[in-house]
Each structure stands twice: as structure tokens, then as C-alpha cells.
Amino acid sequence: MRDPLVLAGRSYESRLIVGTGKYASVEETEAAIDASGAQIVTVALRRVDLADRASGSLMGLLMRRAKDWTLLPNTAGCFTADEAVRTLRLARELGVADLVKLEVIGDPKTLYPDNEQTLEAAKVLVKEGFTVLPYCIDDPIVCRKLEDLGCAAVMPLAAPIGSGLGIRNPHNLSIILEHAKVPVIVDAGVGTASDAAIAMELGCDGVLLNTAIAHAKNPVLMAQAMREAVRAGRMARLAGRMPRTRYANASSPTEGLIE
Predict the structure, then answer these.
(1) Which pLDDT belongs to residue 258?
(2) Which of these ranges, 157-166, 189-198, 240-249, has the smallest mean pLDDT?
(3) Catalytic residue, candidates 22, 67, 101, 109
(4) What gap in Å lies between CA 35 and CA 124, rounded to an integer?
(5) Averaged over 186-210, what is the pLDDT?
(6) Nearest Cα to Cα of residue 103 among 78, 128, 131, 72
(7) Residues 219-248: what's their mean pLDDT?
(8) pLDDT-derived band at 255, boundaries 50, 70, 90
(9) Is there a contact between 154 and 173 (Cβ–Cβ < 8 Å)?
């Protein structure tokens, strides 16, 4: 079944986007990304030396695998719209920013996004020609405003970043999905394969995660699990689940039984 994720006119066979932080080594990072099947890989611009393309460095890996992976620079660690915009402008000058993940944090403890600053930064970046994928709270109104500004997708959180709590508010996600005209990608809070499957079964277009793989006891095996979970959840969504009923419903006919 060919069912690509389409972002700003570009098609991706995988609906799983993975991060590059928190791994034990660059070698483990590469092995996990390969196991995940992800075609889009995100990297925190403020936590990596963009100019270090040496063998054995993270940027060296990302440049070496540029034909396999689309790089998605993100603005993790930025607390104002100005910081986020300046960070992405610098990355563009170094040739690594086209499709970008906008992240403007409002609180260092919860890492919840600052809605006002995110909207302000998105407005500037879209005008400057960036393809913007904003991390945001699971607020239907904020998602609608980001879409109206011209963002290529919206990325509401499932739970706080790195918490592994899973989908905390499926109701809000359902409302966002009902009205969105751009892809909706769950970003943050996924802890295990079942969380990713649930996000896809709800109708999300993709899942972005990092810690769930990097902090697993076996990151490569968890990456494989996430790959299959996203696929299974998407297929279940397209197949259409059976109706929920209050009482039992026999799986074989109840008429014409042999006495």
C-alpha cells in the first residue's frame, strides 16, 4: 500500500520522524534511525556544532546520509521568537535549513511552548520562505492560527517533552484533526509503540519522537517497534475500526444452530 506523508508538496513513505539527541553514541544514533525507517530526521541547532562535519560527529553523520534522510533543524532551547528566528537564519546561511521545526519554549520545567512567541516567529519565518512545522500545545485555536499563517503542518504535543506519558488528551487531538487542512503530526510525549499506534489510529498524519527510542533499554529494537506501530496504526485508521458496543456481539451466526 502506497500512502505517503506529504509535506509542502514533498512525499515521504515513512510517517515517523525521529530525533538525534540522547543516544549513547553516533553509531547508535545511525543504527536506530535506520531501524526506524524514518526519512525525516530532526536535530537541535543550538545543541550541535553545525560546522563540524568530521567523521564521527553528528553533523558528519547527517551530511553523509543526506541522500537518505531529510534534515529537519529545530529550535529547541529557544525561549523567544527572536531567538528562534535568528537561529534558523544562521542555519540557512550554513545550508542546513529549509524544512524547519519551530520550537519556542515558554517554561523550562514543563517545556510547554509559548503560544504567543510561536505565532510571532511562525509569521516571520513563513514570510521569509521557510517551510515551518511548529511544535505547539494541543489547542485547536492555536493550531488553526498557525495553519492560517501558512505553516506546512501543525505539531501538537501528546504530553510534555521526554515524559513518555503518551496521548493525554485524545479529545483535543480529535478536534484539531477534524478541522485541520494541513498534516497533523504528534510531537512529544510518546513513550512506547502503543502510544504511536494510538496517535495514528486517531487520524494523525505522523509521529515525531526521540526520547522513547534513545532512552529505551534497546534503542534499535524500540526503533523497529515504532516503525511497525506507526504503520499498523495508520492501516487501522484507513481500515476503519468496528463500532464499540455495550454488550457482546457473537462472532459467529446465532441463527440456524444445530440442535
Answers:
(1) 65
(2) 240-249
(3) 101
(4) 36
(5) 95
(6) 78
(7) 93
(8) low
(9) no
Distance (Å, rounded) from C-alpha 197 to C-alpha 147? 25
The Cα–Cα gap between 59 and 47 comes to: 11
CB 136 within 8 A of CB 119: no
Question: Mean pLDDT, the chain, as a whole number?
Answer: 91
CB-CB contact of 77 with 44 (8 Å): yes
Q: Band the pLDDT of 254: cuts 50, 70, 90.
A: low
Q: What is the rounded distance in angstroms from the CA atom of residue 103 to the CA atom of residue 116?
A: 12
Q: What is the side-by-side order of every strand in the sheet holding 70-74?
A: 155-156, 131-136, 99-102, 70-74, 40-44, 16-19, 206-209, 185-187
Give the cell for residue 147: 495553519
Query: What was the pLDDT predicted at 103?
Result: 95
Question: CA 11 → CA 2, 6, 15, 111, 168, distances in Å?
Answer: 11, 4, 10, 30, 29
**22 annotated active-site:** no
Pairwise pLDDT comparison (53 vs 125), residue with the higher score: 125
Confidence of residue 154 (pLDDT cuts 50, 70, 90): very high
| Pairing state between β 5-7 and 10-12 | antiparallel
Residues 44 and 30: their CA atoms lie apart, in Å, by 16
Its pTM stands at 0.91
Q: What values do phi and psi take at 239, rounded to 5?
A: -70, -35
